[in-house]
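PT: before anyone asks, these are the final sequences, not the draft ones from last week. 225 residues across everything. Please model them as a single complex and drop the result in this thread when it's through.
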Amino acid sequence: SAVISQKPSRDICQRGTSLTIQCQVDSQVTMMFWYRQQPGQSLTLIATANQGSEATYESGFVIDKFPISRPNLTFSTLTVSNMSPEDSSIYLCSAPGSTGSGPEETQYFGPGTRLLVL
Amino acid sequence: EDQVTQSPEALRLQEGESSSLNCSYTVSGLRGLFWYRQDPGKGPEFLFTLYSAGEEKEKERLKATLTKKESFLHITAPKPEDSATYLCVVGADKLIFGTGTRLQVFP
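LR: through. Structure below.
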């Protein structure tokens, strides 16, 4: 399995400011993923972060708003820039890992960062 | 269009009352179907991976099954600590998330 940690676990921010969320994986992975989960909704993929290349953003998400860094194979950051109340959400990072049953793999998720923008 | 639909949206059970959650999917090129448990304010916790029709996986009171069009998560004699949202996720070209079933188990 993959053990994923995130910092901060939660934050309350003012409109117009930026917050950087850190994600650490306990093993080296090629790809890491950032998701947003708005209240009562399922997860929406923001971007895929590959080490050594630019992140790939999904439709509706842009680099200026959600810049991502991926400096090595175990770490990534997501910045939520120029925040507005609509950015209030849980932000989750994920990475692939073995399930422990032979070659099976799945996506493991961090505990999430709960963001409230006032 | 690839799609994953979970039903019911919410389910209330008495402790010990067995039931099933459904996940219907339409995808081209299924690479795997995953079940997760998510507690409020936390990230999804991996439960099972299923790859082919007829496959079954069990863990404690949970059993997941897969056909060519749907998956079921059977909960046998649930306890209050089983209360959570259960997410079905289908792997194709990318992961496609269902909206989840919110399960509440009352003592």
